[in-house]
Amino acid sequence: SKRYSLRVRVDGAGDPEPQTIYRAGGSDLFDVRAAASGFHVSVRDASPPKVAQIVANLESQIPGALVTGGAYSLQIEKELGTAEALRDKLNTDDAIHGIAHLRMATESRIDPAHAQPFWGRPNPDIVVSHNGHVTNYDRLRIRYEGLGFSFASHNDSEIIGMLVGEAMETGL
Question: What is the predicted pLDDT for the residue at 147?
């Protein structure tokens, strides 16, 4: 089976011990690897509902944890500052593409959770950068939270990845 990897940032509390990560993620985690400002975990059952539960557990049980991406074939890294600073922090030896997004935050906080690109939680390999406004965001967020999905931010653009993932699940 393909390796489904979740990227987890940890801010403030230091890097958690592997046993803490396994306890938070549950029996569906099979690998933990260190990464800049956090870790990667691999998931056995990568169905969106299972991933949504693992994301919620990791973020609620590990202080300062933020799951920034989930994928088979890409990696999402979020950092405040310049694209050059991010490049210098990462191991990009095997990377073939990259996107850096810089925005002026006018309505949201300036932190990695609110930084783009957004992962289409909990769907794999969906990443969204968007400059605009989602007018029915509040209604959509309530709907997705009712289905057990979690959000990293209060940025309306984050909902787009969930909508795309849902459309893909139904065959579009």
Answer: 87
